[in-house]
Design brief:
The protein has one domain: 2-Layer Sandwich (Erythroid Transcription Factor GATA-1, Chain A). The protein is built from four helices and two strands, in the order ααββαα. The protein has 109 residues and is mainly α. Helix content is 39%, strand content 7%. The longest helix is centred in the last third of the chain and has 21 residues. The protein has a two-stranded antiparallel sheet with strand order 1-2. The protein is globular. The chain starts with a helix and ends with a helix.
Length: 109
């Protein structure tokens, strides 16, 4: 069994709601020409990776990027852009990595 201090830290980290933590933060997806740079519209945009999600099943919150409403709409296909699908996937994935770095720096993970 890990030391008690590690166990307590683990329990505290476990209670963080990453979807709520994403609110009012700068967008990490930052699609050029699309991003509205408005933290008031930020949400956690889940990256859909085969094997981690399905019909009506969202991926784990650790697979999410902090995204403004404009970037979220673009990566979910609700708005059309000049970017190819693969480019949007890459920008979303990079946003997930930037978001993970934020969560790590803030000791959420």
């Amino acid at each position: 069994m890990p030391p008690r201090s590690c166990w307590i830290t683990h329990q505290l980290k476990k209670k963080i709601d990453l979807r709520k933590a994403a609110r009012s933060r700068a967008c990490t997806v930052r699609i050029p020409g699309v991003c509205n740079h408005n933290p008031e519209t930020s949400v956690l945009a889940h990256y859909r990776l085969a094997g981690t999600c399905g019909t009506a099943i969202k991926p784990h919150d650790m697979q999410g990027a902090i995204a403004c409403s404009a970037c979220h709409d673009a990566i979910d296909g609700r708005t059309k852009t000049d970017y190819e699908h693969d480019s949007l996937l890459l920008m979303h994935a990079e946003g997930v990595f930037r978001t993970l770095a934020i969560w790590r720096d803030e000791e959420f993970i």
